[in-house]
Amino acid sequence: MIREFWVKNYLSISDKQGLDFVAKGPASELVTEVAPGVFLYKLGILYGGNASGKSNMLVALNTMFRLLVMSQFDATGKITQYYPFSLTNGEPTEMHVSFYSNSIRYDYDVKFNDKYILNEALYYYPNKTKALFYERSFVGDNVQADIKFGSTLNLLAKTQNSICENTLNNHSVLSVCQKVAFKEDIAPFNNLYNWISVNYHEVDGDEDKRVADILKGAYNDEHKKKFYNVMLQKADLNIMQYRPIIEDLTFSNEVKTFFQKFVPEELKEELFKTTKTIAFLNHSANGNFEIPLEWQSKGTLKYIKILDALYDLVTGPHVYYLDELGEDLHNDLLYYYLNVFIFNSDKSQLIITSQETTLLSQDMINENRGVVWFVEKNKETASSEYARGDSFGLHKNLSLYNSYRIGRLGAKPELGSIFIDLED
């Protein structure tokens, strides 16, 4: 889970801006104890007008963790995550994140441009005391970075040398785990690398999966299939269950003979068959009937896609960023989705952007204003600014929703007259 994050000189963000998920205590279901005595919000919601910079904060969060685990195999490769603010193009981007992995806190800082990681430092708290994991600094082009490792890691000298030799100037030290299978025991490196790779996800999920592929994958997992069927039933979509419709692929006799002779039996079904569509069983008083995937509404398809993230969130410690959650969904279905996450997850975190402002009228949100950020562009600097919902000094009896609606919290578009004059 993420404790805090800030970024400087990235996309629409010029000056240092960030998010903070620290909660005062176990006040509600929105809070979880990620480590003894440490309480974090499980949910974060970003509000603001179009082009205010809401999505850019999600992209920045994603970039932070991708930088940690994605390596380069060529020293000349560009750091593709470098997207500086337009007016400070050429200057480095700076990021900081404090997060928890297996109840251990990690603090990571990085400074980079399109060619090099200029500085990075990773600290951790293995015994509640801050200790160095590693720190590195850029020395020069085609020169090995200066890397220092913490003594608590107990790395052998040859392990340290091997890591240094494989760390190029355009990727993080930790990401070496992606391209080198070390013979020595570097458990602290591997454990953290694997944790981030598995539990921190891309914006809107790790892949642009087709709905049919999502449902087919779930269908082959009894536990996940049950989850999908239950969630589809509860969503009042008149769907009782679903099933993939499989059809045989057409191959020449020569290809079929080859497959029969050389392909293992357990792979033949995957090779010879494909999922044509998904059929959803619907109910009526006159009998049940099936509707194919292609006839489902846009909202139903959107709901199915975000169920993939919800399954992970309620079955393990995952972090997801979902952009414009609520788009194409009825607001009651959006509330339901969020409540399923809140009441069934433990050490997972969901950070979303949304235009569904009625969420602010929900008692749980209004009473836990630290889960909300209001985002707007500074008119003078054109830079995005982020303000946490509990930073405005609103009295607890005042409605967060009404305060936002009347413009007291900013982050609303200031629209011009509805009358258009096209004459010179």
Describe this structure in words.
This protein is α+β, with helices and mostly antiparallel strands. It has two domains: 1-204 and 323-414, Rossmann fold (3-Layer(aba) Sandwich), CATH 3.40.50; 211-312, no CATH class. The protein is 29% helix and 26% strand. The protein has helices at 54-69, 157-166, 187-199, 211-219, 222-234, 253-262, 265-272, 298-315, 331-344, 363-367, 400-405, and strands at 2-8, 17-20, 31-35, 38-41, 43-48, 93-101, 104-112, 117-124, 131-137, 146-149, 200-203, 241-248, 273-282, 289-292, 319-322, 349-353, 372-377, 384-388. A seven-stranded antiparallel beta sheet has the order 2-1-6-7-8-9-10, with helices on one face. The protein has a six-stranded mixed beta sheet with strand order 11-15-16-5-17-18, sandwiched between helices. A hairpin with an 8-residue loop joins β9 and β10 (146-149). The longest helix is centred in the C-terminal third of the chain and has 18 residues, at 298-315. It is globular.
